[in-house]
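quick one, 246 residues, struct below
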Amino acid sequence: MRLVFAAFGLILPTISTYSDSSSDSLLRHYTATIKAIDNNTIYFINGKHMVYDDFKTKTAQELLDRPDVQDQFHYSYNKTFNTTANTDAGRIRSDAFFKAVYGANAQEVSRNLTEVVWCPKLVNTKLRFSRINGANKALERVSQELDQHPEWKKYLTNIGGTFNWRVVNGTKRLSSHSFGITIDLNTRYSHYWQWDCKCTDENTIPQYHNNIPQGIVEIFEKHGFIWGGKWKHYDTMHFEYRPELF
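---
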């Protein structure tokens, strides 16, 4: 596992004393914000630091409500589409971690946003997205590929939103929209578990519904975005930049 340090203007490789596949993945994909993971501590380039793994055993609800950074990898993200194998991979997020990476409040996150022209030929609208860790560049690559598919235009117009500092409905947890790393497609053709069960109880897993074409999903995944349609608590409009989960 290689870490990147800045010293006297030079980029120097070294080896962390803490190593597992998830920490390796964070270091590969968050080079703009993470300086090192050492002795069970994440050190950020902005000077912040936090515990990587608290070594606590947690229930499914505790994983959602009180995760450490390592817990974010508790479920494996499946690129194969199989509703019987769906997990909530990616729904577990440490607010403290994402605040350290993308901004601690709406104002800080806003300073890290840039404009992406979404599907210039088919839609041609501007979206605000984080430039941290190349999230905006990844969305631009998605946009370029989707722009070649007029048969999907109805899903790509009337975008449901990108940046919006808010909590997940029915919880105290910040939505990933708060960090400018998520895009919702047209809600008219989307399904969300809370809409379908008319509830917010996370112990409830309603019958699965989806209308989003698999080809759209594959293009997003190719560029580091997970799809909320692969969650047990599904959100089929939702695509979130989480390259470390691949």
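The chain has a mean pLDDT of 91.
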